[in-house]
Write a structure and sequence with these properties.
By secondary structure, the protein is of the alpha+beta class. The chain folds into 2 domains: 4-188, 2-Layer Sandwich (Fructose-1,6-Bisphosphatase, Chain A, domain 1), CATH 3.30.540.10; 197-321, D-Maltodextrin-Binding Protein, domain 2. It is built from 9 helices and 14 strands. The chain has helices spanning 4-28, 43-59, 80-93, 99-108, 126-131, 213-223, 236-242, 268-276, 311-321; strands at 33-34, 40-41, 65-67, 116-124, 136-143, 146-158, 164-171, 176-180, 187-188, 202-204, 230-231, 248-251, 280-282, 303-306. A 7-stranded mixed beta sheet has the order 3-4-5-6-7-8-9, sandwiched between helices. A 5-stranded mixed beta sheet has the order 11-10-12-14-13, sandwiched between helices. Helix 1 packs antiparallel against helix 2. The structure holds adenosine monophosphate and magnesium ion. Magnesium ion binds at residues 68, 121, 124, 266.
Length: 322
């Protein structure tokens, strides 16, 4: 199976969703509402989820979709304006959309993990999006627990020519590529297979509460890293590893996060992109991430993504420090 139809649809919808995010960013940057867990969400998160789910529901009506957002929040009377803004934004992408359809598309993302499913995060790194830093429109296809396709649209990701906006795409067995967000030739990408720790870069979240910096720095010292870790919001970190701009990404859970577990949509597309670029991804115990269980990586602890060559050595250092 070459996943040609899945690839064409995925490319089309993440590009459309990323354009919606860019429009919102230009018009109403910084406006966020708070979810029940106090994390921020914007018009763009909901709008992009509607666009992504509309495309998936139309092309693959039998595939469940597990997305981050849910439209229940928008029933609150005080969020009527936000609801209207979301509908207006989606109409710019899908002109015939009705308000009811927009809400139904957002809620199409409330599916459950099955034999074959899609998982998506309409904006991963919403905090980065609000700050004008990195964020990613993220989508992956999983079959029998194995990620088959992963795609990330990263509108703020730098390109060689000084412009911004990259799409990372990987299909199992077909390698990983990047291409300009506005369209163009795909270029193969590979991890940087260096293994001289003093010259290597680790990458981590910008948000200090999303991973344990103290433990991560201790790991760096044990490995003899010379440079301070790079920091980046969102799944774009996996793109940086896949393109050789960093050599490993650690997500060591903070004590207060223990038991909460990572979301499948925060990792699935990035994992296959790194793997197909020649790297390796496991949890902190060296176990493969298990995408067959539900919306959470409930059988795993943290994440280590690397160029592959150094993976075992980093795991050994993690074992000493965590
Ligand atoms: P990042 O951009 O790497 O900081 O990752 C953003 C993702 O972190 C969000 O999509 C959240 O699902 C997730 N997240 C939120 N709180 C935490 C936490 N305390 N620990 C780990 N991840 C978190
Ligand atoms: Mg996310």
């Amino acid at each position: 199976m070459n996943y040609q139809q899945e690839k064409d649809i995925a490319l089309e919808i993440v590009t459309e969703a990323a354009q919606l995010c860019q429009r919102v960013q230009q018009n109403q940057a910084g406006q966020a509402i708070k979810k029940a867990d106090t994390s921020p969400v914007t018009v763009a998160d909901f709008g992009a989820q509607a666009v992504l789910c509309q495309g998936l529901a139309k092309a693959f009506p039998d595939d469940p979709v597990i997305g981050e957002e849910d439209a229940t929040l928008l029933e609150k009377p005080e969020l009527q304006t936000v609801r209207t803004q979301i509908i207006d934004q989606v109409k710019q992408s899908l002109p015939t959309a009705t308000p009811e359809q927009v809400i139904n598309w957002i809620n199409w993302g409330n599916g459950s993990v099955g034999e074959r499913y899609w998982t998506l995060d309409p904006i991963d790194g919403t905090k980065g999006f609000i700050r004008g830093n990195q964020y990613a429109v993220a989508l992956a296809l999983v079959e029998a627990g194995e990620i088959k396709l992963g795609i990330l649209a990263c509108p703020a990701f730098p390109r060689q020519n000084g412009k911004k906006g990259v799409i990372f795409l990987a299909i199992r067995g077909q390698g990983a590529v990047e291409m300009p967000l506005e369209g163009g030739q795909p270029q193969s990408i590979r991890v940087d297979a260096s293994s001289e720790f003093p010259q290597l870069y680790r990458i981590e979240s910008i948000e200090s509460i999303h991973s344990d910096r103290q433990v991560q720095t201790a790991i760096d010292q044990r490995l003899g890293l010379q440079y301070a870790a790079k920091q980046m919001d969102s799944l774009a970190k996996y793109g940086a590893i896949a393109r050789g701009e960093a050599h490993f990404y650690t997500r060591v859970p903070l004590a207060q996060f223990e038991g909460k577990k990572e979301n499948i949509w925060d990792h699935a597309p990035g994992v296959i992109i790194v793997e197909e670029a020649g790297g390796k991804v496991t949890d902190l115990n060296g176990q493969p991430l298990d995408f067959s269980l539900g919306a959470k990586l409930s059988n795993n602890c943290g994440v280590l993504a690397s160029n592959g060559v150094i993976h075992e050595q980093v795991l050994a250092a993690i074992k000493q420090e965590y």
